[in-house]
Specification:
about 220 residues; alpha/beta; Rossmann fold; six-stranded mixed sheet; 8 helices; 10 strands; Class_I_gatase-like; Transcription factor Rba50, putative
């Protein structure tokens, strides 16, 4: 494959063996357009984050960077983002991160995001936010259901998908409030940080990941 696009780097320090199978469409979509670099080693992650040219996108596929022992790698990701890169928090992050780890984790990026409820809900695409963030929404699903750890934020500019208040509740929990979403993205420095809280790798979420990478 010949491409001028810098590689996508996937950092998977918790190294879950099922990731490649569960996110097969994302991996195939990336590899159809550029190189996918995958690492489960902190030293390798630091080296790849400093490569020239820098990765076009960094995928954080699990909760490991929220742990204190991996702070050096998370700080390197934030340096990359502030310099103009895009990092997407996805995969098993929402399944294994502890609620009290979320606010300080994103707080280091200057984001006021904290843990919301965990349940299934229906979300609809917020096209104006997609345009403002430079996310191509043309092939994103306008509306879909997902079971997810919702992210709470007062920054409505970060809500790439918003709760569909016309949809019936699909779980015992109440529908998400206006400031909660399973799909968020916000500018940090000259770059962007995205979050997908879906725990089941729904088709709609895999499309979102590729769109955040600029590869949909």
């Amino acid at each position: 494959m010949t491409t001028n696009l810098a590689p996508v780097l996937a950092i998977s320090l918790a190294n879950q063996s099922w990731f490649d199978k569960m996110y097969g469409p994302v991996i195939a979509g990336i590899k159809s357009k550029t190189e996918l670099q995958q690492t489960s080693d902190a030293a390798s992650a630091l080296r790849l984050l400093s490569q020239v040219p820098a990765p076009s996108t960094v995928l954080i596929t699990d909760h490991a960077l929220a742990l204190k022992e991996n702070a050096t790698v998370w700080n390197a990701v934030l340096k990359y983002v502030r310099g103009g890169g895009t990092a997407v928090i996805m995969g098993s992050f929402s399944s294994f991160v502890l609620p009290n780890e979320i606010e300080p984790f994103f707080g280091q990026a200057g984001l006021r995001w904290w843990a919301g409820p965990y349940h299934r809900s229906v979300l609809t695409l917020n096209e104006s936010v997609a345009v403002a963030l430079g996310v191509d929404a043309e092939k994103l699903l306008p509306r879909y259901s997902q079971k997810a750890l919702l992210m709470a934020t007062k920054a409505t500019r970060a809500m790439l998908y918003v709760p569909d208040k016309t949809a019936p509740s699909m779980s015992r929990a109440a529908l998400p409030g206006n400031c909660e979403t399973a799909v968020a993205m916000e500018r940090v420095g000259d770059g962007r940080i995205g979050y997908i809280g879906d725990v089941n790798a729904e088709d709609g979420s895999q499309r979102v990941i590729l769109a955040m990478c600029g590869l949909l």
